[in-house]
Amino acid sequence: EKGFVLKNQQVVKKPSLKVKLNEVYFVTIPPPTPIEVEPENIPLKIYYEDEDLAVVYKPPGMVVHPSVGHTSGTLVNALLYHFKNVSMYQGRERAGIVHRLDKDTAGLLVVAKSEFAHKELQKMFQNREIDKKYKAIVVGLVKKDYGMIDLPIGRSIYDRQKMGTVATNLRDALTEYWVEKRWEKHNLTMVDIKLHTGRTHQIRVHFSAIGHPLLNDEVYGFKKSKLTSDTAKQMSDLLNFHALVAYSLTFKHPRSGKEIKVQLENLPEPIPSILEKLND
């Protein structure tokens, strides 16, 4: 109705219109609607802060920065409220953001308050100079106590909304892991993970690729039917996000060179309650 699609120089008004052979269409891509990013008084746990940067906790269910469909309630909205100065190096919509976590991944993020820190932290991530560690609960009993998953990742050829190892534009991806606990009765394993690259959905894709999708990660292969106990199924129902937490960040301060190491004191609920039940 706005004239963005023309058929034989006539405006197309019916979305249900079927395209036929030899018809000529002209499609105009409208300019993106600007997103107004406002400070919002969203609770924010700050683990470290100085003039250049901060390390904060992102809860599961929170989107990192505004986008279509997520114009408020994001981490950026919280940063703009809680910090007087946040780097605008990449614009207000991504104020302070130098790396991301998926919406349903909980954990620590370093954010830039100064433009200097923003540029330097970006370089450090590109050069793999920032140590990121995660904990995850995966389905199945991981056989090896220690392993490296070295599988390139790209946009899935089967579903363009997902990443995969059978994909286009593959990029190297390396994930190191250690088994912390196996629950044979429940067919679950807890793993400690270190990322050596930072590809989109890397941990989720890698563990799915080796046959051990994350608990509750239905996008990458989780099926409740693979759980072998009523307790595990109840824990899956209790958990409203996939079982992945970025619990540790270690890096050298971009200005002083001092080592900054931050760890979560506890995993987010209900994971501790789930672990207690699984260990009974």
TrEMBL record:
PROSITE patterns: PSI_RLU (PS01129)
GO biological process: one example: enzyme-directed rRNA pseudouridine synthesis
The keyword Lipid biosynthesis appears for this protein: no
Entry's transmembrane regions: none
Keywords: Isomerase
Function: Responsible for synthesis of pseudouridine from uracil.
The name this protein goes by in its record: Pseudouridine synthase
